[in-house]
Specification:
Rossmann fold; 2 domains; 9-stranded mixed β-sheet; 6-stranded parallel β-sheet; 17 helices; binds alpha-D-glucopyranose
């Protein structure tokens, strides 16, 4: 039998155990897609956060070197997850906290994680050919591997280049020459994102559009120079989605299942959601936005656009949580315009799916978007996306201007509240036109499955291992 390629996939989030943003979603669906090719054996590893609920079994424990001392690590495994074994790196001091991120010592917490994964390699029977790391949290891992396991290849995927992590240089002195230290940021704290970019055998990011953007100084968050250096080993591969997990027809959560040839169910789901939120069931479009409430997601633009727009022409549901400032602003908007605008801060995947299914139009006015999954989910459920054409949004949404026959959505002309309001008006007019179903149908027919992207990754993995 042909030997399978062994991949250890390390991520700070894996849905459903931990799912703050798109990283968790990808860490759930991508390894599964790899497994389905029959070419790979995959094992995943993530931190054991406090609120993880699954059947955990003790695997092993060991000490993890941290600067001059050691910390204990207890490794557990999800007993119910057998097709893709998932290991959890436990340490109460670092991970037994209410939230996943945004602590002062995040750099130390994830440095511990990287060191622990390294130790794990010598204690489990799974010997990976490739360690696939993700975002800054695991950026030090390619560096540690280079020094301790040079035979293992590493891949580093950038899901968002704007977040970096830091550690004092003393934590890595045994590993680094003076030059290397300086490259990583010395005399300041060393930068995890830089480590990932410099030491991984292959650097990827989650869309070709974003790959092109972050090579430019303006969008590279200080990393464009290093990426330029690694250009020969840097590639943008579009994320896929789990088309079975997100399906308007196969999902038992869908009160009225529907598909592209039977769209009546979509209208019924819309009525249901309107009733749930006390919105009148009128012939005006239902707009939706499911997002972290963060500046970069364009929430300020949305607030402005609401104030510029004719509220009687649409309804809007916003689902998500985040910055307290936006909680305040959005609460007051929904109080003022209760009959038209609903804000729900309690995200759940089930609710998100119901909103995608009910919505006519989906807004994504992000400042930048490495890939974006919301627009793909929206199209899958027949909600027409209105996006700022950056990164993965530009790679996945087709406008009339590009291809009248295949158009799936709309682009804002620039990143401003005025431009968003203007485009909203345009989409709302289109909603009442005879052409509207074209956008819905084209979007629903798009294939955003992992199929293509996994084969691109497969080619890259094989090249790294000298198998092609
Ligand atoms: C991050 C990015 C998002 C991307 C996701 C998965 O959350 O901001 O654009 O879709 O990672 O790669």
């Amino acid at each position: 039998m042909k030997r399978k390629i062994k991949i250890l996939y390390a991520s700070a989030e894996i849905a459903p155990y931990a799912n703050v943003g798109g990283l968790g979603e990808v860490a759930r669906s991508f390894p599964k897609a790899l497994l389905e090719t029959g070419e790979f054996e995959v094992v995943r590893v993530m931190p054991l956060y406090k609120n993880i609920k699954c059947k955990l079994q003790y695997v092993t424990d060991f000490s993890v070197p941290m600067e001059k001392g050691f910390e204990t690590c207890v490794v557990k495994q999800d007993m119910d997850q057998t097709d893709i074994p998932t290991y959890f790196i436990g340490n109460d001091r670092y991970y037994c906290r209410e939230n996943i991120y945004a602590y002062e010592d995040d750099g130390f917490r994830f440095f511990f994680f990287c060191q622990a994964v390294l130790q794990l390699l010598s204690t489990i029977s799974f010997h990976p050919d490739i360690v696939h790391t993700n975002d800054w949290h695991t950026g030090v891992l390619p560096l540690l591997l280079k020094k301790d396991y040079p035979q293992i290849k590493s891949v580093y995927t950038i899901h968002n280049i704007s977040y970096h992590g830091f550690i004092p240089a003393s934590y890595l002195t045994e590993y680094l020459s003076e030059d290397e230290k300086v490259k990583l940021g010395y005399p300041h704290w060393l930068n995890f994102m830089k480590a990932g970019i410099l030491y991984a055998d292959l650097v990827t990011t989650v869309s070709p559009g974003y790959a092109g953007e972050i090579l430019q100084e303006e969008y590279g968050h200080g990393m464009s120079g290093l990426l330029e250096e690694r250009k020969a080993s840097f590639v943008g591969i579009l994320n896929g989605m789990d088309m079975k997990h997100y399906s308007p027809v196969d999902d038992s959560l869908m009160e009225y299942p529907y598909d592209v040839n039977h769209l009546e169910g979509k209208k019924k789901n819309r009525t249901l959601l309107r009733n749930r939120y006390g919105l009148p069931d009128k012939d005006i479009p239902l707009l939706a936005m499911i997002t972290r409430l963060d500046y970069t997601k364009g929430i300020d633009l949305l607030l402005k656009a609401i104030s510029y727009s004719k509220l009687s022409t649409y309804q809007l549901i916003i689902l998500g949580s985040g910055h307290p400032y936006y909680h305040g602003m959005l609460s007051s908007v929904s109080k003022t315009y209760g009959g038209n605008i609903v804000v729900d801060f309690h995200y759940s995947e089930a609710l998100a799916k119901q909103i995608y299914a009910a919505a006519d139009i989906y807004l994504m006015p992000s400042l930048f978007e490495p890939c974006g999954l919301g627009q793909m989910y929206a199209m899958r459920y027949g909600a027409v996306p209105l996006v700022n054409p950056v990164g993965g949004l530009k790679d996945t949404v087709i406008t009339d201007k590009q291809d009248k026959g295949l158009a799936t959505g709309f682009y804002m002309e620039q990143w401003s509240g005025e431009a968003l309001a203007k485009e909203m008006e345009k989409v709302i007019t289109a909603y009442h036109s005879k052409e509207w179903n074209k956008y819905i149908e084209n979007g629903m027919k798009m294939d955003f499955s992992w199929r293509c992207s996994v084969s691109e990754y497969e080619t890259c993995y094989k090249k790294l291992l000298g198998l092609s």
